Predict the structure of O-antigen ligase family protein.
Amino acid sequence: MHHGKNKNQFIRFMEIYLIVFILLQPILDITAYINLPISEPIRVLTLFLGLIYVLLSPYKRAKMFSISYIVLLGIFMGLSLVNNLMVKEPVSLITETTYIIKTSYFLIMLIVYYFVFKSLSERIDWRSKLQKYLTINLTVIGVVMVIASLTDTGKRSYGMLDKEGHSGWFYSANELSAILGIGFAIMILFLMKQPTVKKLFLLIPAVIVTAWAIFTVGTKVGLGSILMVLALGSLIALFEAFKKKAWLNAIVLPALFVVSILAIPYTAVGNNMDLTYENNNPAPDTETETDEEGSGGNDTGTEEGTGGAEGEEEDDSSGNVDATALLSNRDVFLGEKVEQFRQAPISQKLLGMGRGGNYEYEPSLVEMDLMDWFLNFGIVGFVILMTPVVYFIYMILKNLITSRFRVLTGENLFIGVAVGIGLGTAFLAGHVLSAPAAGIYLALLLAYLYRSTKPSQKISPT
């Protein structure tokens, strides 16, 4: 009896901790930037506590599938690592292990938060809490970016002089733009759900500061997110205004949308995409996000040091010519890595070439997460890594169809857009699926969307 009580206490404690852990993200990211070595230990500790939480979960069927998957993932990662230590030259055990942990982090946190939301949905309104916490996180990031700008202490996003933008006191501009891009949809959703005029107007400065921060980082990812989210918000607000005769959101959101469009030429991202009003010195558009942070953020993300040094010049060679503007020279890296993969032994084709492929001097990533997953973890690894992502997306679509789209609410549309931005960023710009700082936001929202689209919020055997 006593054992059961302790178990329940631990489960409750972990649920509180895992929700509070969301609020810790910007603080962990800043400590990584100033080389205070706490973000990695806390993230790794949370990973292990999360695994224990899943092991103790009362949902037997879901637990059996999840634990089986995590064991399979662990066995695969072990085989991949051993194989690369045997056949890859040069190879670094620390670099390979760090990359494996960072990649596993996203997948395990996705599973952990699935259980958290499943449990909380029986007791509290966790959705509003999560929206509020993510809004707080983005506001903190925005304020830090403003302070970094005013004190001129922001870390340059790019190594090139004709590129503008900085990532404030955050380690990687790529990851920061992914976090802001994913989170902005939740912030606008939270704004639209405010019950009073006063609360809505108190939130508007936070939205403006966050939008300004997104523009200031200087990447395409953030710009795309702002335009997409504000356009969607404006449409939903106008639709609801006609339906419910509530016009405030229908005025505020289109106004923010128009102001954002007019502001683009005056911002770092406007300069970097050659969208400024004075075109005296057009900036070449061929290597946008890739050159950020020169690029310690390749997957070091806001983690300090472990994978960092070897990533320092990952992007420096990316200033080659004929790449499409959209891919920012990633196709050049992709060509090199595919050639390495083609020449790799069969064991590496199946189990992957490890972080950065079969490099001669320094490991570099393609910076397109799905491509990196395929090349670095091989055919078998890619299937294993993609299984939870594909499962969650399949279940979300199934929930939509079986409910005859009744679960396609405004809220779920915003969460879907946030997930879409996260997955799109992972595919085109990287720094999400193997970067814990950004990956946790996508994991949270994918688990959120799955739970939120379930037609019934009651206890179920799955």
Notes: The chain has one domain: 2-453. The radius of gyration is 22 Å. Residues 369-402 form the longest helix (34 residues).
